[in-house]
């Protein structure tokens, strides 16, 4: 049995396959998944699992170089935006962009991870860095 924090086999395998600048999106229950982008659907019911729980598990395994959230989240729910920023490596500021731009960015992602989060604009795009 795997010892690390992330136990989901498909998600763990996907993170292991990421290259430099590949992106992974962790989205709320309503984020549309662009055609052709793989979806790992973790949503069980309303708010299960929560976005922050999934972000914690993913960031424990993934070297994050950059991250983006929607401006609408930063303005409408600054507490969640701050909590997301605190989960990033030191020196990697959380960048914001309009929600429509974030959805366009997700079209180039390797995967969208769907959570049960029922908070508007609760989505984050993570860009993979390298560990050397």
How are the elements arranged and paired?
Elements (H helix, E strand, L loop, with lengths): L8 H9 L5 E5 L10 E4 L9 H11 L2 E7 H6 L1 H9 L7 E4 L1 H8 L4 E4 L9 E5 L4
Parallel strand pairs: 1-5, 2-5, 3-4
Antiparallel strand pairs: 1-6, 3-6
Secondary-structure arrangement, i.e. CATH architecture = 3-Layer(aba) Sandwich
User: Please, how many domains?
Assistant: 1
Figure out the total of helices.
Answer: 5
Strand arrangement in the largest pleated sheet: 2-5-1-6-3-4
* Radius of gyration (Å): 13 Å
Give the total of beta strands. Answer: 6
**Which CATH first-tier class would you pick?**
Alpha Beta
**CATH topology, anyone?**
RbsD-like fold
Helix-strand topology string: HEEHEHHEHEE
Give the overall silhouette. Answer: globular
Ranges where pLDDT stays below 50 over 5 or more residues in a row are: none
CATH homologous group name: RbsD-like domain
Main sheet summary: 6 strands, mixed
Strand coverage percent: 15-25%
Indicate the percent of residues in helices: 25-40%
Mean pLDDT: 95
Query: SS-based structural class?
Result: alpha/beta
Terminal residue distance: 28 Å
Molecular structure report:
By secondary structure, the chain is an alpha/beta fold. The protein has a single domain, classed as RbsD-like domain (RbsD-like fold), CATH 3.40.1650.10. 33% of the residues lie in helices and 22% in strands. The chain is built from five helices and six strands; from the N terminus they run H-E-E-H-E-H-H-E-H-E-E. It has helices at residues 9-17, 51-61, 71-76, 78-86, 99-106; strands at residues 23-27, 38-41, 64-70, 94-97, 111-114, 124-128. A six-stranded mixed sheet has the order 2-5-1-6-3-4. The N and C termini lie far apart (28 Å). The model has no long low-confidence stretch (mean pLDDT 95).
């Amino acid at each position: 049995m795997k010892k690390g924090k992330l136990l989901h086999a498909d998600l763990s395998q996907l993170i292991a396959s990421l290259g430099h600048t590949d992106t992974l999106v962790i989205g709320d229950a309503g984020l549309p998944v662009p055609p052709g982008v793989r979806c790992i659907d973790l949503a069980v019911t309303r708010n299960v699992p929560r976005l922050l729980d999934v972000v914690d598990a993913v960031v424990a395994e993934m070297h994050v170089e950059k991250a983006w959230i929607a401006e609408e989240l930063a303005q409408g729910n600054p507490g969640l935006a701050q909590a997301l920023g605190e989960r990033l490596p030191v020196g990697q500021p959380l960048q914001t962009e309009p929600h429509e731009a974030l959805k366009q960015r997700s079209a180039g992602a390797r995967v969208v991870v769907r959570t049960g989060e029922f908070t508007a604009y609760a989505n984050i795009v993570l860009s993979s860095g390298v560990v050397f």
